[in-house]
Amino acid sequence: KKTSAKKQMMACLFCRERKIGCCRPPEDAPDQTCNQCARRKRKCEYPTESRRGQHTR
């Protein structure tokens, strides 16, 4: 039986903009840079606010 890792809920800004998979390291890792940003030597930033919520019409 395979155990699957929990799916990350939020991609970093770079991965979201490029619409690519964002693989965030575990929370206890010293460096919180995702694989895509680390490969490109970019600063990995995550959105601070959730875009979910009530929609106004």
UniProtKB/TrEMBL annotation:
It comes from Mycena rosella. This is Zn(2)-C6 fungal-type domain-containing protein. SUPFAM superfamilies: Zn2/Cys6 DNA-binding domain. Residues 11-46 form the Zn(2)-C6 fungal-type domain. GO terms for molecular function: DNA-binding transcription factor activity, RNA polymerase II-specific; zinc ion binding. Transmembrane segments: none annotated.
